[in-house]
Design brief:
Order of helices and strands of chain A: HHHEHHHEHHHHHHHEEEEH
Helix content of chain B: 25-40%
Shape of chain B: globular
Strand order of the largest sheet of chain B: 1-2-4-3
Largest interface: A-B, 25 and 19 residues
Strand content of chain B: 35-45%
Oligomer: heterodimer
Radius of gyration of chain A: 19 Å
Radius of gyration of chain B: 11 Å
Structural class of chain A: mainly alpha
Order of helices and strands of chain B: EHEHEE
Strand content of chain A: under 5%
Largest sheet of chain B: 4 strands, mixed
């Protein structure tokens, strides 16, 4: 098969698979518009292992486990497992934590942003604008010579740590020891059957490793070099969710801003939360989904980013940085959600720090 | 022959370096060293889109050397 056709088929089928499986996972029990959300799922895992005590968002999400192991399987089969790392690890950890906090101010990672958009949640449009703006800023830094430095080959044992951790998480999910936390209410209590979630994650992890699907990469490459290959995956995902919602999910498409599922309608914060995610994703070389896939393929820098995101989720909830969804009072009046003052200050500070990181890491 | 060593650099920096080099010296031949298949695919796709042809690919330890020149 020629290269062009193969690349296009792979990226479009990965995007479509993520979209379709997201709808099926929600039909199977996942929270609304949360068939896949890398940030939400890592946050739930952080809660399950006790890194935060937000009792509505604690569950070991098998999708995350599946993505890492699926990507690892593909990397092994196609001989692409490369233990590699050591490119500004601590900065990557920090940016992972920033990414998580930005995502929790919007209430979703870039994948959930697309899923929300495909269900009519117009707040995701503001988020998409913020994400693109953040990526554009990141691209300006890249053009000015931004670089976290070269990575170098590592021993295989380094690459096995994150896959081993997710296997332990799977054992813990099934054994349910008393020291873990599992939500009995809220989004953390809503989930599809674990084996279905695990297999769905493994399938998109496998496809993601082969196609290099990345929510940030598609927009970045379009800005940077006019290459729309990865963007086609993102568009395929949006179309799969949109068409699936319109034709197969009863009440699946509901256009509007207020009272969307697990979402808030504070426009400024939907926008700026995703500005943080966009800038960080360009600096890190990929969106949260891509980081999981790279971590499964042996990249220890990405593994550290994933750990940074998970620890960041703990900090974000413990320090009250996350946004609250929209709600209604007893009379049915809208109470607009959004981040509190700490979250607002954090987002402002995170953007300043990201700009400083961008300036400080330009190659001469 | 201009050499671009992309070993250890994560995407999209190898493509960006290749882009800068070909824009600066369009008629030169290039030797680009890459060490992951993602980087190799991305650099080759970029070169093809800019009317360059990959004339040879040869291993160099764990890395791959891509030789490219402008299509005639």
């Amino acid at each position: 098969m020629n290269m062009w056709l193969k690349e296009n088929l792979l990226i479009i089928s990965t995007g479509a698979a993520i979209g379709v499986l997201a709808l099926l996972l929600t039909a199977g029990g996942n929270p609304k518009n949360m068939g896949f959300c890398i940030a939400c799922f890592e946050r739930d895992i952080a809660g399950a292992v006790g890194l935060h005590r937000a009792d509505a968002v604690q569950y070991i999400r098998p999708e995350i486990i599946g993505i890492v192991l699926g990507a690892m399987g593909a990397a092994l089969i196609f001989r692409e497992l490369r233990p590699q790392g050591g490119s500004s690890p601590l900065l990557r950890f920090l940016l992972g934590a920033f990414t998580m906090t930005g995502a929790l101010v919007f209430l979703g990672c870039p994948l959930r942003m697309i899923i929300r958009l495909g269900s009519g949640d117009m707040n995701a449009l503001l988020a998409l604008a913020g994400f693109c703006a953040g990526i554009f800023v990141g691209v300006l830094f890249l053009r000015a010579g931004f670089n976290f430095g070269r990575s170098s080959p590592q021993s295989l044992s380094n690459s096995l740590i994150l896959p081993a951790m997710v296997i332990i998480l799977l054992v813990l999910l099934l054994a349910k020891p008393a020291f873990l936390f599992f939500s009995s209410r809220g989004p953390g209590s809503q989930h599809a059957f674990w084996l279905f979630s695990l297999c769905a994650g493994a399938l998109v992890g496998f496809l993601g490793q082969r196609s290099r699907f990345c929510a940030a990469g598609g927009i970045r490459d379009t800005f940077l070099i006019g290459d729309t290959l990865l963007l086609r995956g993102l568009v395929a995902m949006l179309l799969a969710v949109l068409l699936g919602n319109i034709f197969f999910v009863q009440g699946g498409f509901h256009a509007g801003f207020a009272m969307q599922p697990v979402a808030h309608s504070s426009h400024l914060w939907n926008f700026s939360g995703m500005v943080v995610v966009g800038i960080a994703a360009v600096m890190l070389g990929g969106c949260p989904f891509r980081q999981l896939v790279l971590a499964g393929s042996g990249n220890t820098d990405s593994a550290l980013t994933v750990l940074g995101m998970t620890v960041g989720a703990g900090i974000a909830h413990n320090f009250m940085l996350t946004a609250k969804p929209d709600s209604a009072d007893a009379a049915g009046n809208l109470i607009a959600g959004g981040p509190g003052i700490y979250g607002q200050i954090f987002i402002f500070a995170a953007i300043i720090v990201l700009l400083l990181v961008g300036i400080a890491n330009r190659e001469k | 022959m201009i050499e671009i060593d992309c070993r250890g650099l994560s995407c999209p920096i190898p493509v960006l370096r290749t882009k800068k080099a070909v824009e600066k010296n369009p008629s030169e031949e290039f030797q680009i060293i890459v060490d992951t298949s993602v980087t190799k695919d991305n650099v080759k796709r970029f070169l093809t889109s800019r009317a360059y042809e990959v004339t040879e690919e040869k291993p160099l330890g764990d890395a791959v050397v891509i030789l490219a020149r402008r299509r005639k």
